[in-house]
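Review form for a predicted model. The reviewer records the input and the model, then writes brief findings.
Reviewer: anonymous (R2)
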Amino acid sequence: MNELLSLFLTFARIGGLTFGGGYAMLPMLQKEVVEAKHWATEEELMDYYAIGQCTPGVIAINTATFIGYKQKGLAGALFATYGVVAPSWVIIMIIAAFISNFADLAIVQNAFAGIQVCVVVLILNAVIKLAKKSVIDIPTAVICIAVALLSIVTDLSPIVFVIAAGVLGVVIQSLKAKGAKS
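Model under review:
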């Protein structure tokens, strides 16, 4: 039960202290889940994020579910998932009750503008950390650049990019393996 409580409290802290959604949670997830708790490696966390991106639902919730399941099975998945959701649910309920009274105030609008800029920086920081671990050679750099460019200039679903990148990764590795055998 101790580890279930730890899963709940860790993800409740992440869920309650991270603004900007799933991508903004990545730096905190890396620090808590990878560095502090050692519940996953950076590679596993990136895999969970990739799967979470191309499955229905919110990335942060999907990632919490994966990590909870890895640690303590179904019970761990439930505790981690509820932990990451509970703070947001409570905060949203409170904000929903009062937002119409304050949304037009300049101070509230300015606060949201400042928070949005901060979230962009947090996401960029997470992307740079992930890129350092993921872009490890020329083929992965090409895949990264191609996906970045195509995602900017097309309206293709992210699922298409994830599947295509996965297939390319398999093809490239099998070509490397064949070349090493020769």
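Findings: The chain has a mean pLDDT of 87.
Further findings: The two ends are 53 Å apart (CA to CA).
Recommendation: see findings above.
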